[in-house]
Amino acid sequence: MTYDIEIQIEELRSELRECIDPDERREIEVELELARAELAVIIAEKDGWLKAEPPF
């Protein structure tokens, strides 16, 4: 699963480098930030820093 997110992040980085439209850049930046956050959560869960289970 991390591999898919990592590929998505690289694709978004590539899109961001090529993008010249300011509105589209902001959208890509938001998507990139969300993908990075998702990757951080996946890694934290994998390493045992975070539990995805509800507290109840």
Summed up:
With 56 residues, this protein is mainly alpha-helical. It has helices spanning 2-18, 22-47. Keywords: Plasmid.
Polypeptide structure, described:
- The protein has 56 residues and is mostly helical.
- The protein has one domain (2-47).
- It has helices at 2-18, 22-47.
- The relative contact order is 0.16.
- Keywords: Plasmid.
Descriptive terms for the model:
0% strand; elongated; mainly alpha; 56 residues; 77% helix
Write the layout of secondary structure elements.
Elements: H1 2-18, H2 22-47
Cα(first) to Cα(last) distance is 26 Å
What's the tally of helices? 2
Strand percentage lies at: under 5%
Biggest beta-sheet profile = none
Number of strands: 0
What is the rounded Rg? 14 Å
Task: Note the overall shape.
Answer: elongated
Element order: H for helix, E for strand: HH
Q: Percent range for helical residues?
A: over 70%
Query: Mean pLDDT, rounded to whole units?
Result: 90
Category by helix and strand content: mainly alpha
Q: Uncertain segments of ≥5 residues (pLDDT<50)?
A: none
Number of domains: 1
